[in-house]
Every structure is written in C-alpha cells, then in structure tokens.
Automatic annotation (TrEMBL):
Gene name for this UniProt entry: yhaO_1
GO molecular function: hydrolase activity
Pfam families to which the protein is assigned, alphabetical: Metallophos
Highest taxon above the source species: Bacteria
Segments forming domain Calcineurin-like phosphoesterase: 39-237
Protein's recorded name: Putative metallophosphoesterase YhaO
Keywords: Hydrolase
Classification via SUPFAM superfamilies: Metallo-dependent phosphatases
Length: 472
C-alpha cells in the first residue's frame, strides 16, 4: 500500500519565496484502499450564547427557551454527526459571539467537542469576525482531535490539514482581527491531487450580499483554487454560489435563528463524497425555535374578525411546519385599509386578540413577539365635509412629512431628549433598539400611527366601530 504523507510531513514540503511561506503543489498517489462514501458536516455561525435583547420587555416571553436555543442547536448538531457517523465536522467561523460573559459558554462547546472526539470524529474550526483572536480574552483547554491535532486552525496564514485515512485535505485560516479586509483565500494552498479538497472561509463574498464584506473574495476567485467544496460562514442565509463548471460554494447559514431577521429553518449541511471525490450535499434543520413573520394585507378587510381569521389560518400552517419547535411569530398588517385609523388607535387591543389566538392554538408552542401596524389610509377615502378644514390641513402636513427626505432626522431630533433617558439595554444595536431611527419603515409607521390617532379623535367613523367591535 502506498501511504499518504501525514500532516506533519506535508508541512515540511514548503519553501520561502520573496519572504513569504509558499506551499508546494503536491501530487499524491491514491492510497491502495477502497474509499467508500465519506460524510462531512458543514456548519457555521453558531454564535453560542448570543445575547438576545429586549426579551425582558415582554412578560410572556419564553426567555429561557430562547436564550438556550443556540446551545440546544449545537447539541443537535453533535447528535446528528454521531448518528450519521460522519467522518469530519467543520465549523466555518463565529462559533462564539465574542467574549464570554462566564465560563459556561466555553464549557458548552468543550462538552460537545469532547463527544465528537470520543466518537472518533475530528472537528476543525476557523475563527470569524465575532470570535476573532483579538475579540477573545477567555479560553478553556479543548480536547485534541483523534490524531492529536488542534481543533482551531491558526491565524496569520493559511493552514492545511490532511486526513489521510479518508483522503480529505482541509484548507483554512482563522481571523486574527474582527475587521479582516484582505482576501484570505487568495493565499490558500493549491489543491492536492488525489484528495478531496475542502476550503473553509469566513467571508462576505462580494456580490452575494450586502453583509459586511470581511475577507472579500468572489465565486470566480474561489473556483480558481481548484477545490472540490467551499464551506463558507458569515452569511446567515443558506445558499450555494457555485458558478458553471465549478465546485459548490456553500453558506450553510447559521445553526439557530436569533431574531426576526433570521427567519425559517436553520441548521447545517451534510456533504457526501464518493470514491471519485464527487460530492452532493443536503440541508439538515437543527434549530429548536423558528422565527416567522405573518404579513396580512388588511386592504380588502372590513372588520377585525377577518384579520384574526387570517392569522389563525397562517398559524395552523406554521405550527405543522415547525414540527414541534417553538414558533416565534411577528404579525405585520399592511395595505390601504379602511380600518387604518382604528387599528393604530387600538394597537394594544389587536395585539391582545392575536396573542390569545397564539396561546389557544399553540399549546405553549407559539409566542407572539410583536405586532407591526403598517397600514395606510386609502387614497380614495374622503373626509367628512364637516371636518374638511382641519383634516384637509392635517393631510397636507402628513403628505409633506411623507415626502421629506429628512423625516428620520426630524423624528430623531424630536425624540432626542427621551432617547437619552433610555436605559442602556434599550439603546442597543439598530435592529434591537427601542428607537431605530435608521429604520425607514419604523419612522414612517410612527408618523402614520400619530396621524391615525389624530384623525380618530376628530372623526368617529364606521371603521373605528367595525375594528373595535363596538355597537353604534
């Protein structure tokens, strides 16, 4: 039998050219063994114990179930790897979400890594922007892989790991700092002939997303490396950016959605490699809760019961699809609606009704996270002649505001005093802040809500009675 060179011997097959460490392109004879199908689990962006803001603002929120979701998803990943008897687990960055609040976060990963290693499954991890070397001050001793190698790939330069018993070469590099702006993949080693070459990279992938472009590169550039599969991390939306004739270039997405911006099934990718190093892959959901937004067009609806019925029907479908997972729902009411004024005036009422449906239908499987009323007044709805003076003036002012490009700045200026008095936890990031001034939809909704309240006070019309269920 001709044996493949070991990882240690391969590392010596390097030379320095121009002051840079260069890895020689090595051609190995295929070992005299029959390689059957090999399995590799590709995960990324676990963000273990990621802080979930604003939960404490809701008395009914299942806070502990949501906060522990990332750990339970990681446990599901470990169980899947063992049940499927995979040959390798790769995690393409952002295992952590920054420095740990306490050692329990690190211990949670140590526990799962130990399970995998005990089962004979090697684990390879690269650091991303959230767990870059300079972001982490806490650390715990990690178990070694079955061959004695470290779990984390190094920073500063690309590294190759060779799993000779399964004919797999893994190439990757951890982030040294959070804002990694150079094209790391450009300096990755050449593919090794006779082996299945897998590249690990945490990247924004130019042209694929508006996400921060850390470690920028292109699908064409990755394809030119000649690898058989690219395991990417950083983008939380699952997708393959393969170009014609090239290898899969796959974002597995994150393991567990953390907020309403990360909707739908989340999990990992299971890769199957045949004896000729051709691969196919399938998505496997691992999440323990799912975020979904229910968008209801209130335009054609005449009373509140139609809104409630629409939500109830949507909810029944989602509960079935969630397969026992916790469903975290947000309702967004849209459209030009005759109920516009009444809905804005009775936000707490409509929220309570929808929450009651969630509790009754969900059997503790549903939590209504929020209700967003984004309706507008129908353009053809005429205002009563008795009030055309003040209401016509109000509509003129509103139209001026709606078309004012500095609307967000005006609102921020008006609320600056109140904003400064908010506790720190309510200021937060843009997507979690109590006053997200950069969110144009939020700003527009604020104006429409205030306008609806004024209109409702001036005009007691039939839409208010219909939406509130009041008798005339």
């Amino acid at each position: 039998m001709t044996k493949l060179l070991s990882f240690q011997r391969l590392n010596t097959a390097q030379t320095r050219q121009g002051g840079c460490l260069q890895t020689l392109r090595l051609v190995f004879p295929i070992p005299d063994i029959a390689l059957t199908t090999r399995k590799i689990l590709h995960a990324a962006d676990i963000h273990l114990d990621s802080p979930l803001k604003k939960l404490d603002r809701y008395d009914s929120a299942p806070s502990q179930r949501i906060r522990r979701a990332s750990r339970r998803a990681l446990e599901n990943m470990t169980a899947l790897a063992i049940d499927e008897d995979v040959d390798l687990v790769v995690i393409a960055g952002d295992l952590y979400d920054g420095d740990w609040p306490d050692q329990n976060t690190g211990l949670a990963f140590v526990k799962e890594a130990a399970k995998l290693v005990t089962a004979g499954i090697p684990v390879l991890v690269i650091r991303g922007n959230h767990d870059a070397a300079n972001q982490m001050t806490a650390s715990l001793p990690l178990p070694k892989n079955p061959d004695g190698s470290d779990i984390f790939l190094q920073t500063g330069k690309a590294e190759s790991r060779f799993l000779e018993d399964i004919g797999v070469a893994v190439h990757g590099q951890s982030f040294r700092s959070r804002a990694e702006k150079s094209n790391l993949a450009a300096k990755y080693p050449d593919a090794v002939a006779g082996m299945f070459n897998l590249g690990m990279l945490h990247t924004g992938l130019e042209g694929a997303t508006s996400h921060a472009h850390y470690a920028p590169c292109t699908p064409a550039g990755l394809t030119e490396k000649g690898y058989d599969y690219w395991a990417l991390g950083h983008i939380h939306v699952r997708g393959d950016h393969q170009i014609e004739g090239g290898p899969p270039i796959v974002f597995s997405g994150n393991l567990q959605g953390r907020h309403i911006g990360e909707q739908g099934p989340k999990g990992c990718v299971l890769i199957e490699v045949d004896a000729r190093n051709r691969c196919r892959y399938d998505f496997h959901p691992l999440d323990v809760l799912r975020w979904h937004e229910c968008v209801i067009d209130a335009g054609p609806m005449q009373d509140r019961d139609e809104i409630l019925d629409a939500y109830q029907s949507w909810l029944a479908e989602q509960i079935d699809a969630c397969d026992g997972r916790l469903l975290v729902a947000r309702v967004r009411l849209t459209g030009q609606s005759s109920l516009h004024a009444a809905l804005h005036q009775n936000t707490e009422w409509i929220r309570a009704e929808l929450q009651a449906i969630s509790v009754a239908a969900g059997n503790e499987q549903v939590w209504l996270e929020d209700v967003k009323i984004r309706t507008v007044m129908p353009t053809d709805q005429k205002i009563s002649l008795d009030f055309d003076g003040p209401l016509e003036s109000l509509e003129s002012v509103l139209n001026a505001l709606r078309n004012d490009p500095s609307l967000a700045s005006l609102v921020e200026q008006e609320l600056s005093g109140l904003s400064k008095k908010l506790p720190k936890e309510l200021k937060g990031d843009e997507d979690q802040a109590a006053f997200p001034f950069g969110d144009h939809q939020w700003v527009a909704g604020l104006v429409e809500s205030a306008a609806a309240d004024v209109v409702g006070r001036l005009q007691h019309d039939e839409s208010t009675a219909a939406a509130t269920g009041a008798k005339k």
